[in-house]
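Why should sequence recovery work at all? Because a backbone constrains its sequence more than one might expect. Tight turns favour small or flexible residues, buried strands favour hydrophobic ones, and helices have their own preferences. The token representation captures these environments compactly. In the example below, the structure is given first.
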């Protein structure tokens, strides 16, 4: 009797665990990709705004999305883009304050 219960638990448990793990990794990948797209879009928006004579407005949002991106396994490509953006933003702010 106990063998039947163990086999039933294994039979039901393994697919459930596999499904839960798959959902977790897909969610993580989805969050990372969404944050990446948001970051790149906001950086582009700020560059376009400056070209049109406006101030960049997405700095805090870029940093927030970068935190999400990093927590979900982001790579160095976006990190490099964000560091370039931060340097650019600081230059814009310095020029504006003069």
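From this structural description, the recovered sequence reads:
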């Amino acid at each position: 009797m106990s063998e039947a219960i163990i086999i039933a638990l294994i039979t039901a448990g393994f697919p459930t665990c596999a499904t839960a793990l798959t959902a977790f990794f897909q969610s993580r990948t989805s969050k990372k990709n969404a944050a990446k797209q948001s970051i790149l879009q906001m950086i582009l928006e700020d560059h376009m705004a400056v070209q049109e004579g406006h101030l960049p407005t997405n700095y805090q949002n870029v940093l927030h999305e970068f935190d999400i991106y990093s927590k979900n396994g982001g790579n160095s490509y976006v990190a490099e883009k964000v560091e370039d953006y931060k340097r650019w933003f600081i230059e814009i702010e310095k020029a504006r304050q003069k």
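A few observations help interpret the result. DSSP finds three helices and no strands in the chain.
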